[in-house]
């Protein structure tokens, strides 16, 4: 017997979220049906407010509410720019409190298998900003995946003529890990990316 239409619609909405399959979507939908109406209203309002009050910075592409805190020249080091794939990555790097430069969100990675790539407009905007800001170092902060590697290689090729130092986040052993539990690929990356101690 099939679910009632309103429930099917709710399940379908959850299935649109990344990483959510049919079973998880059903579990979420049935769970929400148990919530009191005021909690559902609160959730709906939070979703509407996030769309209404959040926007992307016209310069760096970060997710902001009003003025962008990541583009303020009084607070940020304009000689270094960190390229990331999505706005979420900006917040992940900020949590480390180890970086004080500028950011630039590409809006995606090159995916040869899926035929997706950052927009040419974003890349042109990046090149313009690099010249205006007097950038001395570009940090490529992408996932250690096929897409991340392809994006890093492409950008290195595209930006080399600007004579700006280009670096990539170090890859290798996680903090506090034992070699017994490290896969061969990660260990190989750690060996090739080793530095003087």
Concise structural overview:
This protein is α/β, with parallel strands linked by helices. Helices cover 44% and strands 13% of the residues. It is globular.
Protein model, in words:
With 197 residues, the protein is α/β, with parallel strands linked by helices. It folds into 2 domains: 5-53, Helicase, Ruva Protein, domain 3 (Orthogonal Bundle), CATH 1.10.8; 74-177, Dna Topoisomerase Vi A Subunit, Chain: A, domain 2 (3-Layer(aba) Sandwich). It contains 7 helices and 6 strands, in the order αααβββαβαβαβα. The protein has a 4-stranded parallel β-sheet. Strands 1-2 form a two-stranded antiparallel sheet. The longest helix is centred in the first third of the chain and has 17 residues, at 37-53. The chain is globular, with a radius of gyration of 21 Å. The N and C termini lie far apart (65 Å).
Draw up the topology in text.
Blueprint: H1 5-15, H2 22-33, H3 37-53, E1 55-56, E2 63-64, E3 77-84, H4 87-96, E4 101-105, H5 120-133, E5 137-140, H6 146-159, E6 165-168, H7 184-192
Parallel strand pairs: 3-4, 3-5, 5-6
Antiparallel strand pairs: 1-2
CATH-derived topology of the largest domain: Dna Topoisomerase Vi A Subunit, Chain: A, domain 2
Question: How many domains?
Answer: 2
Cα(first) to Cα(last) distance is: 65 Å
The shape, in one word, is globular
Total beta-strand segments: 6
CATH architecture title of the largest domain: 3-Layer(aba) Sandwich
CATH class of the largest domain: Alpha Beta
List keywords for this structure.
197 residues; alpha/beta; Helicase, Ruva Protein, domain 3; Dna Topoisomerase Vi A Subunit, Chain: A, domain 2; 2 domains; two-stranded antiparallel sheet; 6 strands; 44% helix; 13% strand; globular
């Amino acid at each position: 017997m099939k679910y009632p239409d309103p429930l099917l619609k709710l399940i379908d909405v959850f299935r649109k979220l990344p990483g959510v399959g049919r079973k998880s979507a059903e579990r979420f939908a049935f769970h929400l049906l148990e919530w009191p109406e005021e909690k559902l209203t609160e959730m709906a309002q939070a979703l509407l407010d996030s769309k209404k009050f959040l926007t992307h910075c016209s310069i760096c592409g970060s997710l902001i509410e009003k003025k962008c805190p990541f583009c303020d020249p009084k607070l940020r080091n304009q000689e270094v720019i960190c390229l990331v794939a999505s706005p979420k990555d900006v917040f992940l790097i900020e949590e480390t409190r180890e970086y004080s430069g500028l950011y630039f969100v590409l809006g995606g990675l090159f995916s040869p298998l899926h035929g997706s790539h950052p927009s040419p407009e974003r890349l042109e905007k990046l090149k313009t900003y690099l010249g205006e800001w007097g950038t001395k170092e570009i940090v490529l902060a992408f996932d250690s995946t096929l897409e991340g590697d392809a994006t890093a290689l492409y950008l290195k090729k595209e930006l080399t003529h600007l004579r700006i130092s280009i670096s990539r986040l170090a890859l290798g052993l996680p903090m506090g890990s034992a070699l017994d539990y490290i896969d061969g690929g990660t260990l190989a990356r750690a060996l090739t990316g080793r530095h003087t101690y």
